[in-house]
Amino acid sequence: MAEGGQTWPEDEEERDLPGAAETELRALVVPAEQHGVRLDKALADLVPEFSRSYLQQLLAQGLVRLNGQVAAKPALKAKAGDGIAVEMRPTHQSQAFKPETLPLDVVHEDEHLLVVNKPAGLVVHPAPGNWSGTLLNGLLGRDPQAMHVPRAGIVHRLDKDTSGLMVVARSRAAMDALVRMIAAREVSRQYLALGWGGWSGQAHRSVQAPIGRDPRNRLRMAVVDLRAHPGKEARTDIDLLDGSQEVCLVRCTLHTGRTHQIRVHMASIRHPLVADALYGGNEGGGLHRQALHAFRLAFTHPVTGQAMEFRAPLPGDMQQALGSWGLRYNP
Asked: How does pLDDT run across 144-163, given as a tens digit for each residue?
């Protein structure tokens, strides 16, 4: 979940390929019940041990042949009796799930879970442009048993340039329980944010505004009218902690976990985050990344039932920015 709340999609990148760098050739025949279905769907049914996204990558790389001809389009229609040859080969995505030794700030560890304090600049999960050096790689390098948990136990995420606390499962049972708790809004997540503009009105404000893909810019999210555009309801409670005529320091409490939720809601009330260029926030106070820090995480331990609460100090760059504007933060 971006900013602590968006759950991972069901389609999981494949990790356990046959052989670390080997190639396996599969010869398949399309059965009658698969006649007329999309090629990628037929492949997913014929090779169920691999994810559909992995098989689509093989298609894109020209590693699938349909009746002897390279088939690069997933939407091609398969016909009963068609011969398919699939060259099972590690992809960039599959090879991304490799252990790496990375310095991780672990603030809590037990046999069921970890809580880590992620620095700004660390990508959570391998993706195009960041196939290595991610939190996932570091978790695999730190704990061999993480290889046996989907996505190394990552149940939610923070944006690359957002710092702060994340909980990570160390077992499948803990992971499933944490995912259920997050969906049921039983995990409390609070953030500190520095926004542009002097605050006016009451110190507490609850923003309830649905969020979806920005219809004018598909690279970002926006507050949308659900009657006209797809999106989901979203709520963020915002409390003023300190401010000046230029900027405001606020505490944000998530009640939902939409992509970029705090960034979008702050921009929607005309307080875009400092250095959040995507949502209209200029750099300032020495900050070169969005001024957002997940400082508090609280939940009931999914196995022991113990009440857990963690706090992460404000990182140095945000402390320096506060000082430059004469603002104070009292933990």
From this structure: 889 888 889 999 989 999 99
